From TrEMBL:
Enzyme Commission designation: 6.3.4.15
One of the record's GO molecular function terms: biotin--[biotin carboxyl-carrier protein] ligase activity
SUPFAM superfamilies for this protein: C-terminal domain of transcriptional repressors, Class II aaRS and biotin synthetases
Protein name, as recorded: biotin--[biotin carboxyl-carrier protein] ligase
Superkingdom of this protein's organism: Bacteria
InterPro entries: aa-tRNA-synth_II/BPL/LPL, Biotin_CoA_COase_ligase, BPL_C, BPL_LPL_catalytic, Transcriptional_repressor_C
Alphabetical UniProt keywords: ATP-binding, Biotin, Ligase, Nucleotide-binding
Domain BPL/LPL catalytic: 42-217
GO cellular component, one term: cytoplasm
Keyword Nucleotide-binding (UniProt): yes
Keyword Ligase: yes
One Pfam match: BPL_C
Top EC class, one word: ligase
Length: 289
């Protein structure tokens, strides 16, 4: 990938002094190292979707190496799960995607990648911004604003070609109340973050992701041996709550989320005593934490 730094390209980059641009060159110096996971960090001023852009590079003629990172100061066609739109003001958050090629890990364990990313992001936000972040299965990042649980971020993992997964992350960093897209949204700033410096937060997130990914890959993708299953369960706000899972095929499962199985599926105990593992779908929390 050819570096194109937003900090060099945008003549109006200081229009909001509370939201300075990211410096791609500085991020590369901090994150790209011999023997490390990250091979390149590219920052662009705006794009439709970093996931779409990286997937196109991966499957294109030149391809992309594992560890390529694409960050956008603004996305106008960002996507969450179920093709939901993800939009926010320029430089108000972190919107980035990475290329992972977990070839040593059996494909059936690749489904852990979005959960792994959630653990890595939550860990990094606690360390770098002092914000306790809970995980809503399978891919939402929750913070507490004025005593209320709010969504401040999300994760989207997509296969790209035969050997790669593109993982996208969106985090609302400095979003203000009047900028929230929906009432249930939140941001690190609204959750009382000790810093909203996106450079600091992004470095922490990518370093945490590198650490967790390396641990998981070295364990052959085993969620128990790598500590991933335990860490996700410990930080998951969904477990122990009554939920409604809206599944493909217009099927609904209602019950208590009681466990996370070895494949990363949410196990729901229904009123008739059955335990049903859910691997895909939209989960709604029915009971307050």
């Amino acid at each position: 990938m050819t570096p194109r730094d937003a900090a060099d390209a945008n003549d109006n980059r200081w229009s909001d002094l509370d939201r300075p641009p990211l410096n791609g060159a500085a991020l590369r110096r901090a994150l790209v190292r011999d023997g490390g996971l990250w091979c390149d960090v590219e920052v662009v001023e705006r794009t439709g979707s970093t996931n779409t852009d990286l997937a196109a590079v991966v499957t294109g003629e030149k391809g992309a190496d594992e560890g390529a990172v694409l960050v956008a100061e603004e996305q106008n066609a960002g996507r969450g799960r179920l093709d939901r739109r993800w939009t926010a003001p320029a430089r108000s958050g972190l919107f980035f995607s990475v290329v992972l090629k977990p070839a040593p890990v059996p494909v059936e364990r690749w489904g852990w990648l979005p959960l792994l990313t959630g653990v890595a992001v939550a860990t990094a936000l606690s360390r770098s911004a002092g914000v306790d972040t809970a995980l809503k299965w399978p891919n939402d990042l929750l913070v507490t604003v004025d005593g209320e649980e709010r969504k401040a971020g999300g994760i989207l993992a997509e296969r790209a070609g035969n050997d790669a997964v593109v993982v996208g992350v969106g985090i609302n960093v400095s979003l203000r109340t009047d900028e929230l897209p929906v009432p249930g949204a939140g941001s690190l700033a609204l959750a009382g973050a000790t810093t909203t410096d996106r450079d600091t937060v992004l470095r922490a997130v990518l370093r945490s992701l590198e650490e967790w990914y390396g641990r998981w890959r070295d364990a052959g993708g085993d969620p128990v041996a790598s500590g991933l299953q335990e860490a996700y369960a410990a930080g998951c706000a969904t477990l122990g709550r009554d939920v409604r899972a809206e599944l493909p095929g217009d099927r609904t499962v209602v019950g208590e989320a009681v466990a996370l199985d070895g494949d990363g599926r949410l196990v729901i105990a229904t009123a008739d005593g059955a335990r049903e593992p859910v691997g895909a779908g939209d989960v709604v929390h029915l009971r307050p934490a």
